[in-house]
Amino acid sequence: MSLQLDLLRHGETTGGNGFRGSLDDELTEKGHSQMQQALAGLGGWDLVISSPMLRCQVFAQQFAAARGLPLRIEADLRELHFGDWEGRNAAEILFEDEQALGQFWTNPYGFTPPAAEPVRDFANRVLTTVGRLSAELAGQRVLVITHGGVMRLLLARARGLPEAQLLQVEVPHASLKGLSCVDGEFNEVAPCQPS
Fold first, then answer.
1. In a domain, 104, yes or no
2. What's the CATH number where 32 sits?
3. Cα(131)–Cα(168) distance, integer angstroms
4. Which residue range is the domain that position 141 belongs to?
5. Is the pTM of this model over 0.90?
6. From the candidates 10, 32, 147, 173, which is the catalytic residue?
7. Is position 114 within any domain?
């Protein structure tokens, strides 16, 4: 039996754009509204799982309580840690080290920003967690509130993209995507159903 994951990226945050993997920004009012709109009229979940970061967890707690759903926090579904690039935007890094930024965009598995978590380690922790959940929760439908990087990774796997194309997967704020997971294989499916 497969596990159906409906992946929701957090909405706009108080920290703005840029590399904010480990910075624990909260949602703006707009960000909260974006997430509410993404889920409006949808349902059918057995469980809500969230990253521990405030931009995910606060909304997840409120949503799960409002729908009477159990909530689980999964620490390994947090965003990639960007090291020395945390809190900075691409334009700033481009100005200081165009080559490093270019290497990261074109070869994210092969180039690690200074003091950052290697993408391969990030991928291993996310995929290990999803594999465990897939075995434990087979046959269930789960809403996962997480980050752009986590969603890019899982969608890239489902689409069979090469590692070099990881950062080309578009995941705007409050994007909702569906995945079917079975035996370590991912297939992209339509998310959710009307409640």
1. no
2. 3.40.50.1240
3. 24
4. 3-82+120-194
5. yes
6. 10
7. no
Mean pLDDT by 10 residues, the chain (195 residues): 95 94 96 97 96 98 98 98 96 93 96 97 97 95 98 97 96 97 89 69
Half-sphere exposure of 96 (CA within 13 A, CB side): 9
CB-CB neighbours of 25 under 10 Å: 17
Neighbours of 194 (CB within 10 A): 7
Number of domains comprising the chain: 1
From residue 136, give the alpha-carbon distance in Å to each of 21, 49, 71, 170, 191.
27, 13, 15, 29, 20
CA distance linking residue 145 with residue 159, whole number of Å: 21
147 is an active site residue: no
Does residue 12 carry a catalytic annotation?
no
pLDDT number for residue 191: 85
| Residue 191 tokens, joined | 């998310």
Among the listed residues 32, 79, 81, 147, the single catalytic one is 79
* Pair of tokens at residue 97: 């080290």
Q: How far is CA 151 from CA 11, 132, 195, in A?
A: 14, 17, 23
DSSP states of 147-179: -HHHHHHHHHHHHT--GGGGGGS---TT-EEEE
In a domain, 112, yes or no: no
- Please give the single-letter amino acid code of residue 124: N
CA distances from 76 to 36, 41, 88 (A): 24, 29, 23
In a domain? residue 98: no
Q: Which two tokens stand for residue 142?
A: 């789960």
